[in-house]
Amino acid sequence: MLKQVQEHKNSPTLLFCGEEFNEQLAAGRGNLRTIEKYNIIDFGLAENNKPEVLQNKVAEICEKPENYGAKSKGNSPIIWLKNIDKITNPELENELVKIIDPSQNTNLGKQQVEREFYEGKIKIEEIIDLSQFTLVATTSTSNPQLSKKITDKLKPIESIFNKYHWAIFGVSTGMEIIIFL
């Protein structure tokens, strides 16, 4: 019986701003919905600030048997684009836009990969396609200075504290007043 690979809607890259999100994602590794170390691209590291390095890392992530297996089962492996606010190279920024833009990231080139099938290992050509991955981008600051071409392609996610800051502040201040009376 052949299993069909499920269609996965190519959704926008989620953007989380602030170091607390980097810490939470790093601490959450090993949980059920985890981000594997080999699926993290940290732009805070100098060696990751070249467009060709980003292209190679994305190709490696797509080639990983673990990611291929997860996608075959209908799961969506997570790619963490960490510290995108550290990008200063305009060419790297353009390459990042291709990766985070759902209209562009379904065909980022082709590569030869070796896959394990019932008949054994077979070398095949695959399209580098990120549509079946969940892309998560984080910044090291709460108010990053990102270019418009990047922010237009991201879906910002606010922390509950930021979103309801004044409500939380009002309730907590009110509680303090009641306690001290």
Question: Which key features would you list for this structure?
Answer:
single chain; 181 residues; alpha/beta; Rossmann fold; five-stranded parallel sheet; two-stranded antiparallel ribbon; 7 helices; globular; disordered N terminus
Write the topology of this structure.
Blueprint lengths: L12 E5 L1 H9 L12 E3 L8 H13 L1 H8 L5 E5 L7 H11 L9 E8 L2 E8 L6 E6 L8 H4 L2 E4 L2 H4 L1 H16 L1
Parallel strand pairs: 1-6, 1-7, 2-3, 3-6
Antiparallel strand pairs: 4-5
Helix pairs in contact: 2-4
The residue fraction in helices comes out at 25-40%
Overall 3D shape: globular
CATH architectural arrangement = 3-Layer(aba) Sandwich
| CATH hierarchy class name | Alpha Beta
Listing every helix as H and every strand as E from the N terminus to the C terminus, the arrangement reads: EHEHHEHEEEHEHH
Which fold name fills CATH's third level, the topology?
Rossmann fold
Strand coverage percent: 15-25%
Give a verbal description of the structure:
The chain is an alpha/beta fold. The chain has a single domain, classed as 3-Layer(aba) Sandwich (Rossmann fold). It contains seven helices and seven strands. The strands form two sheets. Strands 2-3-6-1-7 form a five-stranded parallel beta sheet. Strands 4-5 form a two-stranded antiparallel ribbon. α2 packs parallel to α4. The protein is globular and about 50 Å long. The N terminus and C terminus are likely disordered. It comes from Racocetra fulgida. This is 5624_t:CDS:1.
